[in-house]
Amino acid sequence: MKTKSYNPFNHLLTRNEITEYLTAAIEDDDPSVFITALGHVITHKGVTATAKDTGLNRESLYKFISGKTKPQWDTVSRLTHSMGVKLTASM
Fold first, then answer.
1. Which burial class, exposed, middle or buried, applies to 91 when counting CB atoms under 10 A from its CB (0-12, 13-18, 19+)?
2. d(Cα 3, Cα 70) in Å, to the nearest integer?
């Protein structure tokens, strides 16, 4: 049986749903879950638009999305900032 790639982000319609999706991802013990979720957001927004907004090149973003590279904090920060995502700490 042939399967298709599934991007759950394609089924999120509102800003609140997207926020809940990213919040759940960042709360996971595995940091790669948030990176994957952020990749879904990038794909949905468009790699070219994201590259333009962040100053990152498209090749780097495709590597980020595919999981072929582990991003540095600067990259994650630039991506979240460009999307209006605010990361906060709480205790």
1. exposed
2. 26
* Under 8 Å between Cβ of 64 and 42: yes
Those residues whose C-beta lies under 8 Å from the C-beta of residue 17, and which sit 6 or more positions away, are none
pLDDT tens-digit map of 34-70: 999 999 888 888 899 999 999 999 999 999 888 888 8
The residues near 82 (Cβ < 8 Å, ≥ 6 apart) are: 50, 53, 54
pTM attached to this predicted model: 0.78
Look at residue 13 in the predicted model and tell me its pLDDT.
65
Q: What does the angle CA 74 – CA 16 – CA 49 come to, to the nearest 5 degrees?
A: 45
Residue with tokens 């630039």: 78
